[in-house]
């Protein structure tokens, strides 16, 4: 089945650092990918929809200048958390619809810890 | 975004027992999905439901898409220790997917 790869799986860095997270579709093309954030013991909250070749669509309350999304190719979307602060520490997960409108397949997530 | 109402929040059961969890929404969805998430990993799809009234099984798992399109349930029969994890329901209209808060399942051997 369709596989989504996410990298890195864990990041620990100092406050003020910008962090880039990659999401790749391994055996299929994804014109659309989704970025979620998950706080401990909570559900997944959609942050933004990444669209290949056009601007991302952000959910209400998500700062687009803080969370930069680039969908440069049909198999890669990146999320950059700019000038990260401790409150940005969270589990970030990407997903993409699979072949023939299959349900979304998720990456393994990136745990971001800002000191 | 809109969230689904998933219950129960957590369950502690003995190995071999059956489990039932459900999700309700005030809005209609075209697709209902059930995912399982292990600690530190992304959700993995268990069952996808595409038609109102549909009942689908995947091994010991059975899920149904409610007739009103506003609810779904997931049953796990004869639970085993590896069933431990968090189960999320999700309702989707095309690629717009919303999640329940999750049901945390603990299975005692």
Give the gist of this structure.
The complex is a heterodimer of chains A (115) and B (109). With 115 residues, chain A is mainly β.
Report how far the terminal alpha carbons of chain B are from each other: 38 Å
Compute the number of helices of chain B: 0
| Percent in strands of chain B | over 45%
Overall number of strands of chain B = 11
Mean residue pLDDT of chain B? 93
* Low-confidence parts of chain B: none
Assign an overall shape of chain B: globular
Instruction: Identify the overall geometry of chain A.
Output: globular
Secondary-structure topology with pairs:
The complex is a heterodimer of chains A (115) and B (109).
Chain A: E1 4-7, E2 10-13, E3 19-25, E4 32-38, E5 44-51, E6 57-58, E7 67-73, E8 76-81, E9 90-97, E10 104-106, E11 110-114
Parallel strand pairs in A: 2-11
Antiparallel strand pairs in A: 1-3, 3-8, 4-5, 4-9, 5-6, 7-8, 9-10, 9-11
Chain B: E1 5-7, E2 10-14, E3 19-24, E4 31-37, E5 44-49, E6 55-58, E7 61-65, E8 71-76, E9 85-93, E10 96-99, E11 103-108
Parallel strand pairs in B: 2-11
Antiparallel strand pairs in B: 1-3, 3-8, 4-5, 4-9, 6-7, 7-8, 9-10, 9-11
Quick tags:
A: 115 residues, mainly beta, 7-stranded mixed β-sheet, 11 strands, 53% strand, B: 109 residues, 5-stranded antiparallel β-sheet
Could you explain how this protein is built, in words?
In chain A, a hairpin with a 6-residue loop joins strand 9 (90-97) and strand 10 (104-106). Chain A contains no helices and eleven strands. Chain A is an all-beta fold and 115 residues long. Chain A is globular and about 40 Å long. In chain A, the strands form two sheets. In chain A, strands 2, 4, 5, 6, 9, 10 and 11 form a seven-stranded mixed β-sheet that branches. Chain A has a four-stranded antiparallel β-sheet with strand order 1-3-8-7, with no helix packed on it. With 109 residues, chain B is an all-beta fold. Helices cover 0% and strands 56% of the residues of chain B. Chain B has strands spanning 5-7, 10-14, 19-24, 31-37, 44-49, 55-58, 61-65, 71-76, 85-93, 96-99, 103-108. In chain B, a hairpin with a 6-residue loop joins strand 4 and strand 5. Classes of the chains: A mainly beta (115), B mainly beta (109). At the A-B interface, strand 5, strand 9 and strand 10 of A face strand 4, strand 5 and strand 10 of B.
